[in-house]
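Each lists sequence, tokenised fold; shown next:
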Amino acid sequence: MINMLHKMGVRSNAMYMAGLASIGLSVASWLTSETLEDAGRDRADRWGIFIGQWAPTFFAVGIALRIEETHTDKRSMEQETLSESYSEGRMPSRAGV
């Protein structure tokens, strides 16, 4: 799933921003529910907690995407090194890999 998100162009920074936005939205929904609804504090707490639970998921997906980005960059650098070595007519060394 993470690889598919990465190929679709979703980057880790976008997920980190979504996590931060969900924290802000959680506070905003709690305040809105607390002040505008006549349902009491319990309902406001449920809204705030419900939206606040999204943040850890966004941060976890952001971390997984960051790992995917790091591994993708490392693989592309290794492939560039191998292709340069082969194009120069010499066998590449695998000692550092």
User: Anything to note?
Assistant: The chain has four helices and no strands. The mean pLDDT is 83.
